UniProtKB/TrEMBL annotation:
Source organism phylogeny: Eukaryota, Viridiplantae, Streptophyta, Embryophyta, Tracheophyta
GO biological process entries: polyketide biosynthetic process
GO molecular function (one): acyltransferase activity, transferring groups other than amino-acyl groups
Domain Chalcone/stilbene synthase N-terminal, chain residue ranges per copy: 5-128
Pfam families (alphabetical): Chal_sti_synt_N
Protein's UniProt name: Chalcone/stilbene synthase, N-terminal
Similarity-based family: Belongs to the thiolase-like superfamily. Chalcone/stilbene synthases family.
Length: 205
């Protein structure tokens, strides 16, 4: 029986890693650092705190930062005044922004990286298959979910595991991992990051 440690050793690559492309993305609202103290104290209605503002200006000048990119605009802050209020609850408002905007940044960065790479997105799966010398059936569940549902980002993982479990039961295999005891799951995210999980199957009956 293969141990977890043996699986971990087998999945570690030897030799230098290769970065095939890099994609980055920033929020659309850009604020110049030299004007940021005025901007910040104005939108937070704190211009009367002159001593604190001067201290903040000195901090900004010494920070070596020239620009700041952010989603928060004066319009958004007017709609969500708690974001600017000291100790006021603003988690829900911030979370609403994050849920919508972060995936957009991830998509933009990934699109740039794939464009620089110069290969079709589908080749990512093919590269894994080729580099690991996998037989086509090893990615059957992955391709099935991609064909049926499209790219659902991280949710794909659960759909693929469910597809493997369902198909294993239909075909009378002894485990939920297509008859095998151990497996490795690779997840690819924005910016072409990779996450790896070692899987241990259970009996189908």
């Amino acid at each position: 029986m293969v141990t977890v440690e043996e699986v971990r050793r087998a999945q570690r690559a030897e030799g230098p890693a290769t970065i095939m492309a890099i994609g980055t993305a920033t929020p659309p609202n850009c604020v110049d650092q030299s004007t940021y103290p005025d901007y910040y104290f104005r939108i937070t209605n704190s211009e009367h705190k002159t001593e604190l503002k001067e201290k903040f200006k000195r901090m900004c000048e010494k920070s070596m930062i020239k620009k700041r990119y952010m989603y928060l605009t004066e319009e958004i802050l007017k709609e969500n005044p708690n974001v600017c209020a000291y100790m006021a609850p603003s988690l829900d408002a911030r979370q609403d922004i994050v849920v919508v905007e972060v995936p957009k940044l991830g998509k933009e960065a990934a699109t740039k990286a794939i464009k620089e790479w110069g290969q079709p997105k589908s080749k990512i799966t093919h590269l894994v298959e080729a580099k690991l010398a996998l037989k086509p059936e090893k990615l059957r569940a992955t391709r099935q979910v991609l064909a049926e549902y499209g790219n659902m980002s991280s949710a794909c993982v659960l759909f693929i595991l469910d597809e493997m479990r369902r198909k294993s039961a239909e075909e009378g295999l002894k485990t939920t991992g297509e008859g095998l005891e151990w497996g490795v799951l690779f997840g690819f995210g924005p910016g072409l990051t990779v996450e790896t999980v070692v899987l241990h199957s259970i009996a189908t009956n």
